[in-house]
Amino acid sequence: WARGHAAAIAGAPDLAAVVDRRAVTVGPDTTLFELIDRMQRAHAEVAVVRAPDHQVRGIVTKAHVAEAIAEGMELFED
User: Which residue, 31, 36, 61, is CA-closest to 48?
Assistant: First the structure.
């Protein structure tokens, strides 16, 4: 695919130009409430979860947070 689109690729912006910098970095032991607070204060759309060895363990989005809250609310129904 790349060979057939070399001209388009050559003129494409690099990731630094398109990346959304509104992210926070948290550890795997961060609570959901801490995560929400940090994301809200930073106006972040995502959180990068990094282990103490600095390896990325995952990404948490606002949608993930909303889903976790909704699942928690289901526990208290009925």
Answer: 61
Architecture of domain 20-74: Roll (3.10)
- 56 has which bridge partners? 50
Strand arrangement of the beta sheet that strand 56-61 belongs to: 23-26, 46-50, 56-61
Give the integer Cα–Cα distance in Å for 18 and 45. 14
Among positive and negative, which fits the CA dihedral 15, 55, 47, 66? positive
Question: For residue range 16-71, what is the model confidence (pLDDT) as tens digits?
Answer: 766 667 899 999 999 999 999 999 999 999 999 999 999 999 999 999 999 999 88
Dist CA 5 CA 8 (whole Å) = 5
Query: Is pTM beyond 0.90 here?
Result: no
Domain limits, the chain: 20-74
